[in-house]
Amino acid sequence: MISRNVPAKLELYDGFKHIDIAIPEAKVNIEVDGGHHNFDKKQALADLKRTYYSFKKGYLTLRIPNSLITKENLDETADYIVDFLHESIDQLEYDNDLLGWLKRLF
Fold this sequence. Notes:
- By secondary structure, the protein is of the alpha+beta class.
- The chain has one domain (2-105): 3-Layer(aba) Sandwich (Endonuclease, Chain A).
- It has 3 helices and 4 strands.
- The chain has a 4-stranded mixed beta sheet with strand order 1-2-3-4.
- A hairpin with a 4-residue loop joins strand 2 (18-23) and strand 3 (28-33).
- The longest helix has 32 residues, at 74-105.
- The radius of gyration is 16 Å and the shape is globular.
């Protein structure tokens, strides 16, 4: 992510949990999940709670299976994540513009 000029922070603690990769400027958290995240009900519920608490703080959580973090897939995966981040930032800017417009209106 750094080579793509993404200001990523590794293992950032948000007051509730450690996030694998956080991009605060885009309000996006990235969690890299191993296979046990799908097969262990306790882990899956913990992941859902983590996603919920991040969402309450205005963050979207991307859950990336670790099968995409391989030499063969890493560049394509990173490219899609960067595209997602750009879209997220565009949406945040649009939302802020809309909020500013509404505040001026009322």
